Amino acid sequence: MLEGGHRGLRLVAALLAASALQACANNPLAMIDGPFIPALERAAAAAAAAAEQQASAAPEAAPVIAAAEPVQVAAPAPRPVAPAPIERPLAEQVPPEDLAYPDQAFVGPVLTAPEMAALTASTDAAPAGDLPDAVDADFLPPQHEPLPAPPVRTVAAAPSASGLVGPASGPAEPPVELATRLPSAFDFAPEPPPRVSAPRPDGAAAPMASGFAAFHNFAVARLAAPAPRGGRESMLLADPPSLDPALVTCANRPPAVLLDLDPANALAPLVEGGATPNSIELGSYLADLRQRGVTVYWITGHGPDAASAIRRRLVASGLDSTGRDPLIVTRFAGESKQARRRALGETHCLLAIAGDQRADFDELYDFLLDPAAAAQLERHVDNGWFLTPPPLD
Prior knowledge:
Elements: H1 2-26, H2 28-33, H3 39-57, H4 96-100, H5 113-125, H6 211-224, E1 233-237, E2 247-249, E3 255-260, H7 277-291, E4 295-299, H8 307-317, E5 327-328, H9 337-345, E6 349-355, E7 385-387
Parallel strand pairs: 3-4, 3-6, 4-5, 6-7
Antiparallel strand pairs: 1-2
Helix pairs in contact: 1-3, 6-7
């Protein structure tokens, strides 16, 4: 009984092998990857092989007394043979396995070795734009375009005299030194005008030798003169305690003049008043300095509470008709004029200083026991330091 079962299994295996060989003959993919066996047949073959292995390993069974009818094993139905492929153009060919096995995915046209060789030769010979219709250019290796040739530099010929558009080029100009500082009023100072006397209310001319005229003329001359090699100097002493006449260098600071409003050992009067001969003369000189870019500063010992009254007096007297001149007052008790003059020298170049006593130029004169000790400073009197009447007297 066992031997008959073994024979049946062998017959089934032989039929399966014959069917697989027949499928391989018609399936080019099976020639490469092996015969194709459907899932049901593979499962039946695996079950038969497992049963045969189990039967060979089991001990022989006892003989059966009763005879059993032989088991009829149905042979598997022959597998339909795929029809021969239809002759179609290369681009429309369908692999035979797609006709016989619809569940298989399409993987592309199947080409024989001669067709593949011919296609490769035609691809290598034809340019990229003349490829056969059966080959998609996207699957070809990228064609590297040659790099563009570098531009050729050519020298343009000089135009003839008749075709000249712009002016002819002359000799090379010397290099211009660049400015390394901001412009100042010193750079644009006009020529000093002829000295004229300020008119008086009665029509008489004021003397040319007055302190106000000298103050004005000196400031205009300093403004128009070129800067010396060491730089311009302010009319402030560099080291007052040493009694050295050397002055502070003001470099390129904007120009200014300083006038002291207070009389000696007193403060400027705050009573209302109009113009005087001195204020008219001085007002004309100061107006000319303002037009030249010079800032006019006024200094007094009064505090901030008297600033409005002093401003009204300057406007009424004609010394500052627009009321725009800066006014330097005492900010706190004990602040000296010397400290305020030094602070002004940090921002402006003082071309000239006017006052009715020498202490209005520097406070060292208030501490001298022997006035002769400051004899060397007298070179600045009427030469930057000008003794004039109080402007509001």
